[in-house]
Design a protein that fits this description.
The protein is α/β, with parallel strands linked by helices. The protein is 40% helix and 15% strand. The chain has 8 helices and 5 strands, in the order αβααβααβαβαβα. The protein has a 5-stranded parallel beta sheet, with helices on both faces. Strand 4, helix 7 and strand 5 form a beta-alpha-beta unit. The longest helix has 18 residues. It is globular, with a radius of gyration of 16 Å.
Length: 181
């Protein structure tokens, strides 16, 4: 288990506990799926990560963006086969916490466990990397309710941390950095 404190702009680790990076360095082609909310569907971190990995390991990575705007882990469980498993990924990045911020922790954990168990059943060698993202804020240019509709977000992110520890998964914990900003 390793936590990578990552600032809002993705920076590569200098050394990695990630199978993805080790496999790419060994010359093996890899397929990755990023799976989560609009922060994944349209977030710049995906292209920043893709760019760095393809610059350092040309031709070795296929990265599929299966992010879905406005969807939480409940939808993630329902669409896992078509959005993730169909690609037979070597690595899956999971990020649904932001849209689960109104759910109770037990429901979030059940959904997260379901997703992880099904990925493992499909291929036990698939690396699973969990992610927390930013804190909500009421944008003056937006709906001004982001914070109010996600009252449980800190608890949800704690579920991600606990599941990562309990299951021996990597966690990219963006939340503390965003909260500090």
């Amino acid at each position: 288990f390793r936590i990578w404190p990552v600032p809002p702009v993705w920076t590569p680790p200098t050394s990695s506990g990630s199978q993805l990076v080790r496999r790419l360095a060994a010359g093996g082609p890899q397929t990755g799926v990023v799976y989560g909310t609009s922060l994944t569907a349209g977030g710049p971190w995906v292209e920043q990560m893709r760019s760095w990995l393809t610059q350092n390991y040309p031709g070795a990575l296929t990265l599929i963006n299966s992010g879905m705007s406005g969807k939480g882990s409940d939808t993630g469980t329902n669409l896992l086969d078509s959005k993730v498993l169909t690609f037979n990924p070597d690595v899956v990045f999971i990020e649904f916490g932001m849209n689960d911020g109104e759910m109770e922790s037990a429901e979030v954990q059940a959904n997260l466990d379901n997703i992880i168990d099904r990925i493992r059943a499909h291929d036990p060698a698939t690396e699973i990397i969990l992610q927390t993202m930013n804190s909500p804020w009421n944008s003056p240019a937006g709906s001004s309710i982001s914070l109010q509709i996600r009252p449980n977000l800190p608890d949800v992110y704690e579920v991600y941390r606990n599941v990562a520890v309990a299951r021996g998964l990597l966690l990219i914990d963006h939340y503390p950095n965003w909260k500090a900003l």
